[in-house]
């Protein structure tokens, strides 16, 4: 069997039979060996019976959610290729040949693009059409280097084995983003074809909730891009804090009638600490996600970790902390010169604030280096070399065990 058309379904009695008949008509007219699978997510309106009467194979999926329903249908599919689409009669199941053609030419994932194919009046809410979809698609292209123009098109085709290899986990609407992101990160061939979007044939409101599901998509994009979530904002904040601190620490800095003094130095110190913490979290996330297979390993991170051994990290942190400690000692001596009385804080804080900041950052380097070393520990399992003499050799099941399991 070459093609399976999968439709997730939850109470789609008004439209599911129409969608199934259109898909079957496409299969018969194009001469493709295929089937239509309706992944039912617990319908209570008789959608299952209507789908079966229209010629679909109904697969019940117990776990609720758009992603769960689709994965249930994909796992049950018998075709080499799968084309998925909503059962609300908004997608044209009679015109699937552009997807099939791309799949036959070796594409792993073929996305439909509704903005290129055409969106009928009333088919997409203005908020989704002009803000939600364009913005989230732009973020997806920016974060992951994808060239897809419509990240959330529900009509898409893919090689079944290629998608199963992605180990998709999302259970809700963010499943659509996860498929594109993981396929891109895995280096799969992702292409795009124009498709149309019609006004759906349901009389009830859609299952999609604009703000809730939009946030779930955005959250997923952020969690799978630690570079944009942690590193770039942290680096910008750290750099700004260092520059502002270097300008204000020696003396007040004036811009016109505005004077930046020790209060600005306190803000710069906070920027340095927060920015450095964000960069550390980026490192932690990259090491953990790479070792667990959530994200591909970054060559630059690996080279950095090779240079930043535990000993070097401890030495670097100790050096920064020592500089802060020296500054604190000079602050105490300055206080001693005032017979431990009231200080001129405009002068004393110019030394105290950078010293405390250096001490905090030094300890962050030390603790962070220890944590990175823990993340890099490999758990070794030694193979069994001697069998118990009381058990006959023919009864022993010799299982090869890996010399090194995945890192913690």
SSE arrangement:
Elements: E1 3-9, H1 16-30, E2 34-40, H2 47-53, E3 57-60, H3 66-76, E4 81-84, H4 97-104, E5 109-113, H5 114-117, H6 126-144, E6 156-159, H7 160-164, H8 175-185, E7 190-194, H9 210-223, H10 226-248, E8 253-255, E9 258-260, H11 262-292, H12 299-307, H13 310-337, H14 345-375
Parallel strand pairs: 1-2, 1-4, 2-3, 5-7
Antiparallel strand pairs: 4-6, 5-6, 8-9
Offer a quick outline of the entry:
The protein has helices spanning 16-30, 47-53, 66-76, 97-104, 114-117, 126-144, 160-164, 175-185, 210-223, 226-248, 262-292, 299-307, 310-337, 345-375, and strands spanning 3-9, 34-40, 57-60, 81-84, 109-113, 156-159, 190-194, 253-255, 258-260. The protein is an alpha/beta fold.
List keywords for this structure.
disordered C terminus; alpha/beta; elongated; two-stranded antiparallel sheet; single chain; 408 residues; 7-stranded mixed beta sheet; 53% helix
Describe, in plain words, how this protein is organized in 3D.
By secondary structure, the protein is of the alpha/beta class. It has helices at residues 16-30, 47-53, 66-76, 97-104, 114-117, 126-144, 160-164, 175-185, 210-223, 226-248, 262-292, 299-307, 310-337, 345-375; strands spanning 3-9, 34-40, 57-60, 81-84, 109-113, 156-159, 190-194, 253-255, 258-260. The protein contains 14 helices and nine strands. The strands form two sheets. Strands 3-2-1-4-6-5-7 form a seven-stranded mixed β-sheet. Strands 8-9 form a two-stranded antiparallel sheet. Helix 1 (16-30) links the parallel strand 1 (3-9) and strand 2 (34-40). Mean pLDDT is 86; it is low at 393-408.
């Amino acid at each position: 069997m070459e093609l399976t058309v999968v439709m997730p379904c939850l109470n789609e009695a008004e439209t599911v039979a129409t969608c199934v008949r259109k898909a079957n008509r496409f299969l018969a007219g194009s001469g493709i060996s295929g089937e239509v699978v309706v992944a039912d997510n617990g319908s209570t309106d008789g959608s299952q019976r209507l789908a079966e009467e229209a010629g679909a194979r109904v697969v019940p999926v117990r776990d609720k959610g758009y992603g769960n329903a689709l994965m249930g249908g994909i796992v049950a599919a018998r075709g080499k290729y799968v084309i998925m689409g909503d059962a609300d009669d908004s997608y044209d199941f009679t015109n699937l040949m552009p997807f099939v053609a791309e799949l036959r030419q070796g594409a792993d994932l073929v996305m439909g693009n509704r903005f290129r194919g055409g969106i009928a009046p009333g088919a997409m809410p203005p908020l989704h059409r002009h803000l939600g979809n364009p913005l989230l698609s732009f973020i997806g292209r920016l974060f992951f280097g994808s060239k897809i123009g419509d990240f959330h098109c529900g009509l898409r085709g893919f090689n079944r084995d290629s998608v199963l290899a992605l180990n998709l986990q999302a259970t809700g609407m963010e499943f659509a983003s996860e498929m594109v992101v993981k396929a891109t990160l895995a280096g799969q061939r992702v292409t795009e074809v124009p498709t149309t979007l019609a006004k759906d044939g349901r009389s009830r409101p859609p299952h999609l909730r604009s703000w809730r599901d939009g946030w779930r998509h955005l959250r997923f994009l952020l969690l799978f891009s630690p570079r944009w979530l942690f590193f770039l904002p942290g680096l910008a904040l750290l750099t700004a804090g260092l520059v502002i601190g270097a300008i204000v620490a020696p003396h007040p800095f004036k811009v016109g009638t505005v004077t930046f003094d020790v209060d600005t130095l306190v803000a710069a110190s906070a920027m340095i600490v927060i920015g450095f913490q964000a960069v550390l979290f980026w490192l932690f996330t990259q090491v953990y996600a790479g070792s667990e297979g959530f994200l591909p390993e970054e060559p630059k991170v690996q080279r950095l970790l090779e240079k930043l051994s535990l000993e070097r990290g401890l030495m670097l942190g100790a050096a920064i902390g020592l500089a802060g400690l020296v500054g604190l000692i000079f602050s105490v001596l300055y206080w001693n010169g005032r017979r431990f009385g009231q200080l001129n804080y405009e002068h004393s804080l110019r030394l105290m604030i950078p010293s405390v900041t250096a001490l905090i950052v030094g300890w962050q380097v030390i603790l962070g280096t220890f944590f990175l070393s823990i993340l890099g520990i490999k758990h070794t399992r030694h193979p069994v070399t001697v069998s118990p003499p009381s058990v006959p050799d023919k009864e022993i099941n010799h299982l090869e065990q890996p010399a090194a399991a995945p890192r913690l």
